[in-house]
Structure formats: structure tokens, C-alpha cells
Description:
Blueprint: H1 4-7, E1 14-16, H2 25-33, E2 38-40, E3 44-45, H3 46-51, H4 53-59, E4 61-63, E5 69-74, H5 78-88, E6 94-99, H6 104-109, H7 119-132, E7 137-142, H8 147-160, E8 165-168, H9 184-193, E9 198-201, H10 207-217, E10 221-224, H11 226-230, E11 238-239, H12 242-255, H13 260-270, H14 281-288, H15 293-311, E12 320-321, H16 349-352, H17 361-385, H18 409-419, E13 422-423, E14 428-429, H19 430-453, E15 462-464
Parallel strand pairs: 1-2, 1-10, 2-5, 3-5, 5-6, 6-7, 7-8, 8-9, 9-10
Antiparallel strand pairs: 4-15, 11-12, 13-14
Helix pairs in contact: 2-12, 5-7, 7-8, 8-9, 12-13, 12-15
Amino acid sequence: MENVWTTKFNKAQFIVGPMVDQSELPFRLLCRQYGAQLCYSPMLHAGIFVKDAKYRKENLVTCESDRPLVVQFCANDPDTFLEAAKLAEPYCDAIDLNLGCPQTIAKRGHYGAFLEDEWDLLRSMISKVKNELTIPITCKVRIFKDMEKSINYAKMLEQSGCSLLAVHGRVKEQKGVLTGLANWQYIKAIKENVKIPVVANGNIQSLVDVYRCLEETGVEGVMSAEGVLHNPALFRAIHPPVWKIAEDYLQLVEQYPCALSIARGHLFKFFHISLSIEENNDLRSLLAKANARSQLHQFVELMKERFKENYGLEDLYIDMPMSTLPLPPYFCQPHFRPPPPPIKPPGSEETSKKRPIENDSEANEAKRLAHEAKLIAKKEAKEAAGRRLPLCVLCPNPKGVKCDYNLCRTCCRNKVYKLVLDCVGHKLLFKTRKRINEEKNKEKANELVSTLTQPSTNSSPVLTCE
Length: 466
């Protein structure tokens, strides 16, 4: 069996994991500059990828220096998965099937970790792509609570044609405030029972964690997602100043533009400790409201100047060797989640407490009388009106009191939507929104024209999946 880790991934040990709207091209290139050897694309929806050319073009963007690259899909149909994989095949070195996403949207869409019990479907999807593609197929999975089932699961994926397994050492219920620690012993057991390369994921906050995981589990490589989001230089064992990382990232965004919301999200991750300081609330608000790349650059400059002033910094670009935390807030450092809340056994004093019953009868009586008085006043007001509310001119429902067209809300919405009008009374502003969108599109068009007329500074061409 071909060892994809050797032939396709150049024995990569330092790997950036797939993240929705977070592992886009500029961020992947930033991580590669700081030591990452293999990157995954964001998770792409196979069904939308097949049907929507715009979605393909916007979400699968790469370049010559963005290799080796694994493109990850979520899917639940063999034919759709194969068609999406064929479209992405020319732009990457392997196709990955996401079997690890634990979010509610994955449950609704029936993909990710919510396919982990449908082994026949997984065999069908993996074997179909394995037989018809020229590049390998890999899988990113979570473990089961039962270790033996986790091992059998990995063996089944290997036998179906999976060439590499990325194992996240958490069960699908470990998410949000219940995330907790990943279990490396499960990853070690899986590695010892399969012949294909295995990548470990979970509990990676520093390069020390990477080497400790390699030693304890025996895997070929280690994947980080949240760790590199907050410190993209994790694999270099340094803590760079946050503005240095931000400037490097924004320079790549200028070269390979991405959605403004994605770039803004990365800056929030880089500056997550800095922006938690109360004195920086004004700059946090500035970043949140930024609607142009120039404002992102402005935010970084203002943060840099503020830190220089507050901390008396002389050399703004010195890197801190990876060391024991905490560090000053102007260095990139990992984000540590609080531990999960303790689970209280049913029937314990904490779980069986009820809201105390008020024994003050006078207070209760006063509340009751006040409530009755309110109801009586409301009834009298209706009777004093002596008439029903005016009716909508198009249906028997009451009209909106402030409607510009004497209609109920439903009829008003239909009218203003079809004729592109505004109704201030119902707060339906279709005309205003259309004008705003037209102005935004005009600005984007002008920006695109100015970009195209400037000489290109790209060192390598951008490739997009049409």
C-alpha cells in the first residue's frame, strides 16, 4: 500500500487542520511561513461544491506555494462526494472526508461525526473515491467512548481505502464548554492497530506538546487548529508580537484577497488577549465595525502604537522564545479553555435545589392585586375605545397603525417586496437596502478595476476551482 505520508506529504509532522472560514489561503501561507509543512483547506460542503460554481471559485483558492494541500469535504452521498472530489483533484494532493465535525449544523445536515455509526455508507463513499481518483483519500475522525470500537472503526476505514487517518482524541459530545482534554491513549491504540499513517489532533498548544504527542502516540504527524489560530508561529516555538503576525497576514490578504469577515475573524484571534483588556474596548469596537481592508491595517497600527506607549517597547518586532505562560498580552499565545463544569450526580443537593417558596403572604397578596388591577385597566381601555381597529384595505386583518399603505404586515411585506418600496411603519426597507447594495457593488467594481489595472506583485499565480 502506498504510504501517502512519504510520497505525497513529504513526511510532514507539523500540520494545520481544516477550519470553516479560518484555514483559507492567506492563513495557510502564513502558517507555512512559520513552519507548517502540510495544510488542510476549510471544510467544504460537497453538495454545494458540485452545484454552485461561485461557491467553488470562492472557497477553493490555492497557489503554487500552497502545497502539499488536502481538500476536505463533508458529504453523505457516494456519487456527490466523488463528483466534488473530481472537481477538486487538480488543485490538491489528497481528498479528505470529514467524519469529525460535532456541531449542530452537521447533525442537521447529516454529515461529519454524525456518520460515525453508518459504516456501510462510509465504506461505499471511501471505496468509490479511492477507485476513481488518482490522488489518495484520507479521513478525519473522532473517537468513540469505547476503545475497541474506536480501533475497529479505524480498521474499517483503512480496509475501505483510506490512506491516512487524522484522529481527534475526543468523542463528538466533547464540544463547547464540555470540550475537555483529548485522550492520546486512544490515538496510540489506533496507531498500533492500523498500517496506514496516523495524524494526532487535540491538546496541541505549543511545540513541546507536538513532540510529546509524537513520542507518546507513535503517530507520523501532529495537527493543530485552535492552537495555530491564536499563534500561527506555534511550529517555530516562538511567540511573535501580535502586530507582527497581523501585518504578515494582512500582507498576504492584499496579495490573495479573501472575505473581509474572515480576515477580521483572524485579527480577533491574534489579539484575543489584548482585546479582553478594558482599556482597549474602543479598538475592539473599531475592529468589529471595520468594513474595508484599510481599516484592518489602521486597527493594527493603533494597537501597535498603544502597546508601544503603555509598555515602553523599543523593539516592536522581537520574538519571544516559547516559554512558560503567562506572557505580556502583546505576544501571540494559545487560548486555554476553562475546564468543563463538574457533573453533579442526579439527586444531589446541588441538582435537587428548588426555588424557595415565598412565605410573605402580604407581599404575595399585593402582587396579585396589582396584577388584577392591570388586567382591569386594560379591559376598560378596550371598552372605552368603543370600536375595532381599522382593517387592512386588502384583507380582513387589522392594519398596521403606522403602515404607510394602510395594510396589515403580511400584505405590506408582499407589496413593498414586489414593488421595491419602503414602509417605515412596518420597518420594511427594501428600497433602501437595494440602494445600499447597489452602492456597495459599485464600490467593489471600482476596487476590482483598480486592482486589475495595477501591475501584479504575486510570486505565484492564484488557482481557483471554477
